[in-house]
């Protein structure tokens, strides 16, 4: 994953060692078209997703106050 991380704009400021450490902790996952990856309110909000290939649509529901 190191080579991929070198090209992620938000991660370009990381040192080579920091990218290496981040790459070690990454886990790949594959999703099908139309599959929901995570929904608002789901447990597991401490996961950081990086889209390596393809595209996603992100939405946020308005909460009624």
Describe the SSE topology.
Layout: H1 2-5, H2 16-25
Distance between the termini: 42 Å
Over all CA atoms, what is the radius of gyration? Answer: 15 Å
N-to-C order of helices and strands: HH
Strand content: under 5%
Number of distinct helices:
2
Low-confidence stretches: none
Main sheet overview: none
Sheet/helix structural class: mainly alpha
Please bin the fraction of helical residues.
10-25%
Number-wise, the strands total: 0
- CA-based shape: elongated
Would you tell me the overall average pLDDT? 87
Keywords:
mainly alpha
Description:
- The protein is mostly helical.
- Helices cover 22% and strands 0% of the residues.
- The chain has 2 helices and no strands.
- It has helices at residues 2-5, 16-25.
- The radius of gyration is 15 Å and the shape is elongated.
Quick structural overview:
The chain has about 60 residues and is mainly alpha-helical. Helices cover about 20% and strands about 0% of the residues.
């Amino acid at each position: 994953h190191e080579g991929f991380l070198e090209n992620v704009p938000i991660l370009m400021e990381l040192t080579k060692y920091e990218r290496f450490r981040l790459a070690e902790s990454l886990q790949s996952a594959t999703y099908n078209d139309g599959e929901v990856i995570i929904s608002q309110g789901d447990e597991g909000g401490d996961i950081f997703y990086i889209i390596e290939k393809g595209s996603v649509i992100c939405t946020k529901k308005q909460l009624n106050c």
